[in-house]
Amino acid sequence: MKILVIDDEIELREHMSAQLAKKGHDVVEAGSGDEALKILGNTIVDAIITDILMPGLSGIELIKDILNRLKIDVPILVITGYYSNEMADDLINLGVMAVISKPYNMDDILKRISEIGSGEIKPSKKIIYKIEDSSFLKINLEEFTSNPISAYDVYIKFSDAKYLKILNAGEELSSERINKFREKNVDYLYVKEQDHREYVQNSSALLKPELFKSGDNQKTLAERSRQIKRLDELIMEEIYSDNFDQQVFNSSVEVCKKNTELLLANDSMLELMKQIESFSDEMYRHNVGVSVLATMLARKSGWESAITLLKVNIVGLYHDVGKKWINKKILSKRIIDFTDQEHEEFESHCQHSCSILSEIPAISENILVPILQHHEYYDGTGYPSALKFQDIHPIARLITVVNDYSNLTLKNSNYELTDHEKAMEFLNKRKEKYDPRMLKNFCELFR
To answer: How many domains does the chain have?
Structure first.
């Protein structure tokens, strides 16, 4: 028999093809639905085995094309890691022969192929799991990069009324699984409505408790109040713009102010903020600007949880703290005039920032990583590691856009000051350097 095997996971596809070939079958492979349609345009097959969740044309869309548009009468087996009774019912009604869950038993597949060969074709489904009807709310997939261990059950959505649990409360969503979802163009995962309310409100459960320890002497309290007042003044004097979506700006400022109060309750974070201010008022203003704009962009990008927004604020406020280890002569010079040696020293501020913050027990690795990567560009031309695409932490991809904009629109000795329109033109001319979604969302922040 000639069998077409369709799966975007190459290892699974090759393993299944090898097992079928051992039984004497002629196997043709496709890594996507679109590739499968091209094959079916000039190849007659006796059976099709396909995955459901694939980049581009999904398995369900492919099946509809094969059976309804192309009118190809061929037995189809579906292999999926996201099984539910409702989905299986829909597939069987569509004309699929059988639905088998991953991880699969190869004997089940060989048995079905044998039935096809002998003419004993009986539509069937394997019942695995059925969830109760409930209300679900979405969480941006990128939030799980910063918060991989979920306090709640997590689901994936198949249609308006169909959700499948993929993660139990307390389990970790690995980076490998997150990347698989990205490749399959999955932007959101879901939690039940009652869990979502708690998720959005939870500010501290996933941060180290040391972050919220503080001193209460009069001098510390006075300095904390001064910093918070200055932050408020800076936002209105230098960061506020008529170009902003005012509702997003005002709500983001409130988030920033609350988070800054929370951060500066920690003596180490307060001391570090004082050091930034005393070293360079310019750097202090820049960091505050990045923190506010990053919060606006995070919310525009669908990052809703308080814990994620707090991390964004920390990265924004402290991403450049390592510049206090850089020669001040370099920091007062235009970047275009740097020597090679000066470039090398300037670029080391990312590692310095990471090193300084790593000395504070309250700061966890998922804050240090985006601080280290905040100059990595999407096309691989950034530093310190020339990372590309999804290898860059989501918060770093967000900060990169905001940081470049702020370098141009807030006073900065390393760059020529320009206005909003010219800064946006600069970003869009270099659009290959930024995460496309982040750049698009940033542009939409402005009227």
So the answer is: 3
Higher pLDDT, 105 or 403: 403
CATH code for position 92: 3.40.50.2300
Distance from chain centroid for Cα 370:
12
What's the distance, Cα to Cα, between the start and end of the chain in Å? 60
68 and 172 both lie in a single domain: no
Judge whether 124 and 76 are in contact, CB under 8 Å.
no
Residues 375 and 318 in one domain: yes
Report CA-CA distances (Å) from 302 to 4, 70, 356: 39, 39, 30
Q: Supply 174's token pair.
A: 């690995």
Helices and strands (H, E) in the chain, number of each type: 20, 10
434 — pLDDT class (breaks 50, 70, 90): very high
Tell me how far apart the alpha carbons of residues 93 and 374 are, in angstroms, rounded to a whole number: 50
Residue 131 lies in a domain: no
101 and 152 belong to one structural domain: no
Mark which of 201, 224, 256 sits at the end of a domain. 201
State the Cα–Cα distance between residues 21 and 3, nearest whole angstrom: 10
Q: How far apart are CA 33 and CA 30, in angstroms?
A: 7
Question: 58, 91, 125 — which closes off a domain?
Answer: 125
For residues 405 and 427, is the Cβ–Cβ distance under 8 A? yes
Q: How far apart are CA 415 and CA 404, in angstroms?
A: 10
Q: Give me the domain span that covers residue 192.
A: 136-201
Looking at per-residue pLDDT, the higher value among 62 and 196 belongs to: 62
Q: What mean pLDDT is predicted for residues 170-180?
A: 80
Closest by CA position to 16, among listed 108, 90, 85: 108
Structure tokens that stand for 127 in this block: 């019942």
> Mean of the per-residue pLDDT values for the chain?
80
For position 282, what pLDDT does the model report? Answer: 84
